Amino acid sequence: MMHKARLGLLAAGLLLGIHLVSTAAQDVFSPHVDADGNITLPEDFRMNMVHLGSWFVPEGGASGFHDVYTEKEAAQAYRETGEFPDGATLVKELRGHVSRSYTTGEGVGYASDIKQWFVMVKDREGRFADNPLWGDGWGWGLYKTNAPAINVAADYKTDCLGCHVPAKRTDWIYTQAYPTLNPR
After folding, report:
1. What is the pTM of this model?
2. Mean pLDDT along residues 7-36
3. CATH code assigned to 31-181
4. How far apart are CA 140 and CA 158, in angstroms?
5. How far apart are CA 181 and CA 184, in angstroms?
6. Do 89 and 7 meet the contact criterion of CB atoms below 8 Å apart?
7. Bridge-partner residues for 92, per DSSP?
């Protein structure tokens, strides 16, 4: 009888342990954000995320191709709700461009060297209110090619938000350029 009681307790303990591990996994806000709100550039995002769409800026400091990625689950949630879910990560890779003439036409352009990356993480709860890189529903990051592990933005209001003001009505994201968010 004592043996059956021990087995019962062991089974209950295992189930509880599985539940705790499962609950802990569900409590993770974003694998790209630590407890202090520090955001990291996702590794190998071109292979691990879906491409939402691209912009092309012909001139100026931000000239080049702007390719934007997010998690597949975030894109699916956006299709269903019209909003990015809490913890969704958007990565924009800015590349220079080269134009040449080919048999397909004159002035054909393609992406060249990486200039920098931008990362945004959706935060519906305002988790990091005291962190100057978090606000307006997002965490904001800027990464340079010479140090991709370091977020060089100091304050999202001065370093990031200015470029997003025209997209304020669409939650600071230029969604019109992202055909992946459209189910058609």
Report:
1. 0.83
2. 57
3. 3.50.70.20
4. 11
5. 9
6. no
7. 68, 118
